[in-house]
Amino acid sequence: MKKIVLSLSIAFFITTNVFAAGSSSSGSSPTKTNYDKAVVHIKSAKKYEKKGKLEKAQKSYAKAQKLLIKSNEKKPGKADTLNYLGFTTRKLGDFENGEKYYLQGLAIDPKHKGINEYLGELYVATNRHNLAVERLGVLEGCNCEEYDQLKAVIAGEKSKY
Fold first, then answer.
1. How far apart are the C-alpha atoms of 150 and 79, rounded to whole Å?
2. What is the pTM of this model?
């Protein structure tokens, strides 16, 4: 009888510790990085924009930008981070610094689809059509949505800058 109780106690102890080790007290997934959190805010901001809730969108972009700055300080030289830093900065109306972030990202990854698309949109917004067409040229042949979206912006079909 002692052996059964001891065996059950050990089994219970092992089972509860195994399950506890893989989860947090809140039951949520592992901690997200600042970059991951920023992406969530960007997606939220885009939805607010589509609904015409521009003030809420601006707040989400500002939160995302702060997180991206922290992410870039912690892990500099990531093209994806610089892409979204450029994007959020541009969406907040600072085209000059947005362009700087995009160019830093292109120095790391010259064929980055997102950076080329968003930089092209910035060039359209700042009346530098020839530079936007250059970004489109980089994307040509990628068979990607970034090419189609930038082409539409250049053609004036839709404005999303």
1. 19
2. 0.78
